[in-house]
Amino acid sequence: MGNTRLAEAVETLKVNGVRMTPQRHAILNFLLTTLSHPTADDIYKALADTFPNMSVATVYNNLRVFKEAGLVRELTYGDASSRFDANMSDHYHVICNHCGKITDFDYPHLFEAESKAADMTGYRVGGHRMEIYGTCPECQGQQVVGSKKH
After folding, report:
1. H helical segments located in the chain
2. ∠ Cα 99 72 88 (to 5°)
3. How far apart are CA 34 and CA 96, in angstroms?
4. Residue 136 annotated as binding?
5. Among 77, 48, 82, 50, which Cα is nearest to 66's?
6. Does the pTM exceed 0.90?
7. Which residues pair with 92 in a beta bridge?
8. According to the annotation, is 25 in a ligand binding site?
9. pLDDT value for 122
């Protein structure tokens, strides 16, 4: 599945006149295969061994290219660094208040809110955004362990 998405993404970039470099290919592949919603720094660190001459600026520039081509979306929550998501389908995010982990959450019924809002207000609704905040299972486990220490 990942290879099909990668091939489609490469084709989209070609159509947009973007030349495919090994670094671009690696960044794109990383984004398409991770579920972690990485920051540019996360991507840089993950690929640093393979591409020792690549800079964080290169990662940012490529993320901008991918964003303009409609291949990734930039997630900005609070003051934290932007995170990037290659899942362009309609979905929501659940965010951990402790470690910042972001998990995808798919609940199609929430999209009915757009048509309800349009009906009730007369607005032409162009989209909506909702985040859910809580404590991820890993942090919950650490809290339980931490509370047992005296």
Report:
1. 2-15, 22-33, 40-47, 56-68, 112-121, 137-148
2. 90
3. 18
4. yes
5. 82
6. no
7. 105
8. no
9. 96
HEC secondary structure over 92-136:
EEEEECCCCCEEEECCHHHHHHHHHHHHHHCCCCCCCCCEEEECC
Question: The dihedral of CA 96, 102, 106, 109: what is its sign?
Answer: positive
Q: In whole angstroms, what is the distance from residue 131 CA to residue 129 CA?
A: 7
Q: What is the pLDDT of residues 54-79, one digit of tens each?
A: 999 999 999 999 999 999 999 987 66
150 is in an annotated binding site: no
**Is 93 labelled as part of a ligand binding site?**
no
Domains of the chain: 1-88 (1.10.10.10), 89-150 (3.30.1490.190)
Amino acid in the structure at residue 85? D
